[in-house]
Amino acid sequence: IVHLGYKKAVHHHDAYHTDPLIYLAPDNQLLESVVVEGDYNPSEIQTISVEQLDQKLIDQTQASNFGDLVSEISGVSVISTGQNIMKPIIHGLHSNRVLVINNGVRHEFQNWGVEHAPEIDATGAGSLQVVKGAATVQYGPDALGGVILVNPELPELSSHWHGEVGVSGATNGRSVGGQLSLSKGWSHFAVGVNGGLVKQGDLSTPDYLLTNTGKEEYSFSFSTKYHRKNFNLEGYYSKFYQTLGILRGSVSGSLNDFQLAIDRVPPANTSSFSYTINNPKQQVSHDLLKIKSYWIWDHQDVEVQYAFQYNKRAEYDVRRTSLNSYPIIDLGLASHSLDVNHHYQVTDHVSTSGGIHFGYRDNNILPGTRTVPFLPNYDEFGLGIYSAGRLQRNNKVLEVGLRFDHQNTQIRGIDQFEKRYEGELNYSRLSGSVGGRFDISHSVQFSTNLGLGWRAPNIWELYSFGKHGVNIEYGLWRYQEVNGELSANQVLSQDEKNVIPEIGYKWINSLSGSTDLTSWELAGYINYLNGYIYGKPAGVTSTVNGVYPYFIYDQTNALLSGFDLTVRQQLGSAIRSELQSSYVNALDLTNEDTFVEIPPMSIKLKNTYQSAIKGLGSPEFFLSGKYTFRYWQQPRTISPREFQLSNTNVNETNFDFTDTPDGFFLLDLGVSGRFKKVEYFFRYNNVLNQKYRLNTDRLRYYSDQIGSNLKVSVKYQIN
What we know:
22-stranded antiparallel beta barrel; five-stranded mixed beta sheet
């Protein structure tokens, strides 16, 4: 006799005895723990699409930088300056329209221009989530395109000393690296440390070396947690440092050299392999200190968080004589933030959330560059208040959010004539969103969200002036047209050139479904941006250091639309397949034109097979193929030589210096697994050694992307 919750009973009986009365003894089991797992949506607005990479996928990706890691998610690509400097694009928007949240803190860095990548260690991420909507209600004005949330592995309570130590390497660039993590938890307290380092030499394309593309970086973090019944206190400190080389062949001495640099294979100044990083290069460090506490009681909780960050950036160019040892840009950004958030479960079906954000930034030009300051010094104060409500009943969700932000900026600068200028900017606006989610059937779900967001013009879009990376840039208030010619001899003001805040209206709809073996999601969006500020090629100019393309910032009305598609299929017990595709259509409505540096359409298919192999555990093999189409909306092409000879007023039209790159196919394969305490990862990128260029790479004028690359990582579990 067997009954759930009672011990099994066996009774022998025959027909000569009366019917028995049998008592069952309770079967009690003492459980050591119960673990509940689920997917956490970090956004207060639940109808916005969120996709995630967990620790296993992060390890399998073997990403060499943060941009590579984020681009594993459908609808996310990268914009770059060469092979080391990458930043994410979400639905065609990048830089200060994509907010990065690092361990719950807004990552404050020089988030302007294509030449700046977030200072985040890709190998130290425990999980990564991408919010694809205009998530300005919860996160503020810098989230017009979306939000990327990076969460490191934090220490756990009541755990013994455990962690891992690992080594990694790659053939392309001959890179070597190491990682170490350790943590321990007691009943009320836990502590953890994590660190890593990487050294990489010159990368190479299928045909030639890319001289001066080395990289050096190291990172360190320390975290603590203190817990009581209804109270938690967390502390966190991290430091990230890197030196990044920029392709030496991107520097030209004359207009003819610039044209030759575009046409030449290999690039100029190509030499033998080296780990040495010379000019041009970047040296960047980022420090983060965070203290967070939260209280939990009946149906509600309150979080209070303070964070301090210091970001130092020095950029070096190829300069004459002793000036070569001085940076042309040297900036220090100190940031303070205080956030208070409250969540309240009003009833079983109604919940609310709200909060207030205080932020202060102090950005200073550090002395010693011996050049015209690229940006002015500025102090910026920000205040944000938001509230959101959600009604959830019978698998239907309706939610609404509202936010108010005010931003005040004080500017102090020196122009090229050593004349001081000052300014004060004040911007205040409301933003909000409304959305819903419901089940069409037991396996198909539909969600929709309409968001209104905004963004104030940033200092670099207004005041940038001079050499930056491989280009010359002029902000909106650093140039004007005089007799049909561009002049940069005066610092303008709001009265002389009106610049309005960017206002975005984004509508995103998502249809998703799942069965026992299949899951899929199709998301389409339309994003209208009033007063969209963008950088565009404007010509070629000469400096004492060489000849460079120059870009100007302009303002227009833009319409971005597109879709993301993800399909996952389980093919038997050991094989699964995943299809990803994304497309962005970007239009300049004011000028009836298109933009440069928009990611083209792509299709990716990844097949995975897992099987037990003696001595290797249960390794997982994968084969991934991705085709990137040629971008067919490229504006017209004006080569440097044609530009010099033509009388075209390029300030009134968009153009590019070269034709858009051809489409290309990349094939990757790899294996990952665990045997006892050893985890291993092998990934072979660009197996076919394909030669290609990216439409969203500023160095596409000068060189191809890297060729085949075998990456290896081995980790030993400490427990």
